[in-house]
Specification:
This protein is mostly helical. The protein has three domains: 5-114, no CATH class; 124-173; 187-233. It is 60% helix and 0% strand. The longest helix is centred in the C-terminal third of the chain and has 40 residues, at 193-232. The protein is elongated and about 80 Å long.
């Protein structure tokens, strides 16, 4: 019997209405009075795609007992990447082990590719193009933090350091002006005497701030000890 798309979606929604739970392939197949889960997969391409079409929340844990098959793994990878903007691996929570991955794929990279997210083989030219694309799209020079926030679209920092030596070297290779500050608020490159003076001034401010904090901490401890000596004994 051939079911209409509307009927298939109604079946998924009816299960949710009757049970109050999002159906998994396992629970939907075991329940009486519903179509087979494979009807859903055949119509929409995957189980999670059917749930999404029915307006039901899709989670990255696919089944009640967390069993994995190729369809589940591909859905998991796709959902994980959309949520986190990075690739999953076997160290992530509720993720298939490497032995499970190799049961259905050559390796994680093969699984990423079959999920529609092939890893980019980065070289200097591609990395420079990614920086310029970011700059032209957002009208601002990207920071290393911007790239770390999306390692699906942009290269990982360890690749940049390996090929360019530092983030600022990459920015200079793109013929863009570098920021005089890095994540610690200190100069990353001193180009002239003014920069060197500014660097020492920043170091002075940094040390001065921490000396004050240490002094205040000692003062507080001294007050506590003094109170204890006079009023507790």
């Amino acid at each position: 019997m051939k079911y209409s798309t509307e009927y298939i979606l109604e079946q998924l929604q009816l299960y949710y209405t009757n049970t109050g739970k999002r159906p998994t392939k396992h629970t939907f197949t075991k329940a009486n009075g519903y179509i087979s889960s494979w009807v859903v997969i055949d119509r929409f391409g995957s189980w999670n795609a059917g749930l999404q079409a029915a307006g039901l929340v899709v989670t990255i844990k696919q089944t009640a007992n967390n069993t994995w098959d190729k369809d589940n793994i591909i859905d998991y990878i796709s959902t994980f990447i959309k949520i986190n903007n990075k690739y999953p691996n076997s160290s992530c929570t509720n993720t298939p082990s490497i032995s499970t991955i190799k049961r259905y794929f050559l390796n994680w990279e093969d699984a990423y590719a079959q999920a529609g997210y092939p890893k980019i083989e980065w070289d200097k030219a591609k990395i420079i193009n990614s920086v310029l694309e970011y700059y032209n799209t957002f009208n601002s020079i990207p920071t290393s933090k911007d790239f770390r926030a999306n390692t699906i679209k942009y290269p990982h920092s360890h690749i940049i350091n390996k090929l360019f030596g530092s983030w600022n070297n990459l920015i200079e290779s793109c013929n863009l002006p570098i920021s005089i500050k890095n994540g610690y608020g200190l100069l990353t490159k001193a180009k002239d005497g003014h920069d060197i003076i500014l660097l020492f001034y920043q170091i002075y401010l940094y040390l001065h701030q921490h000396v004050i904090q240490i002094y205040q901490l000692h003062q507080k401890n001294f007050q506590i000890l003094n109170f204890h000596h006079h009023y507790v004994k």
